[in-house]
Amino acid sequence: MKVPEIRLFKEPDQSFIVYHEKKPFSPWHHHPEYELVLIKKGKGRRMVGDHIAHFKDSDLVLVGPDTPHEWLCDKEFFLTNGEFTGEGIVIQFTHDFLGEKFFNIHENKALRLFLAGSSRGYEIYGQSKSQIVSLMHKMIKMSDTDRFYSLFSIFKIFSSTTEFNVLSSPIFRESFWLKDNEPMQKALQYIIQNFQKQIQVNDLLQITNMSYSSFCNSFKYSYRMPFKEYLLNMRIGYACRLLTDAAKSISEIAYDSGFENLSNFNRQFRKIKDITPSQFQKQNIPR
To answer: Considering the entire predicted model, what is its pTM?
Structure first.
C-alpha cells in the first residue's frame, strides 16, 4: 500500500516538462520533480499531503518533490463513453535540471527558500496567480526556447511573491516518509482517501496489522494527536474550505465532510473553531 511513483514522459532533449493534460488526472502518487499544476477545466477534491480541499477551474498549486498528491475530478467530468472532459497544464522540473549549483547561487536565495517550502504544497492566488496562469497558457504552444525563458519568468514571480497558502502540515512531512513508519503511512493514506466515510479504528488495525494499543500509541506519536482527533480536524478543515467557496449549503457541506448529521457538525465545528459554521462563512467569503 505504498504511495506509487508516477512520472510524466520527458523527451531526451528537454530539460523540463510542459504537459497539456487531457487524460484523467493521476491518482494518489508522488515523484521526484517539482510540479506546478493549473486546472484549466475541472472541479472536485484535491489532496496534497494531509491537506484536503475542493478545487475548480484555475486552481494553481505548486507541489514539492516526493509530496503525495491527487486531483480527483467529480463524476460529471467522466462521460458514459469513457471520455474525460477535464483539462490541466503541468510544469515539472527537478532540482538539478539547470545544474547542481543553480538554485544555490547567492542571487537565487529567495527562490531557493520558496522552493524548499513547497514540500508542503502551495496554493497560489492573487496577482501572482494571474501572471503565472497567463504564462502557462502561452507555454503550451511556445517553442522550446521561449518556454525555457518563460519558466524563468515564473521563477522570478516565485522569488518575490507572498500570495500563497501553505497546504500540508509539517507533521505530515516529518512522519510520512520515515522508512520504519510504513504502518502509519498506510493508516494516513487510508484516512485521507476515506475521511468522508465512517472510519473505525478496527479498519486501521486491519490495514496496519497492529494491536489496538500499539496503533493508538504509534499514531499519537507520529501525528501529535489521537486518531479520532486527527480525523475530526481533517473533516473540519475540509468543511472550512467548502464554506469559503459558498457553492453548497451548510447541511450539504456537513455531509460532504463526513458528518452524519448537521447538529453534530455544528457542535464539533464550534468546539474546534470557537464559532459556528455560518459565522465562519460570513467572515471568510470575499465581498
So the answer is: 0.72
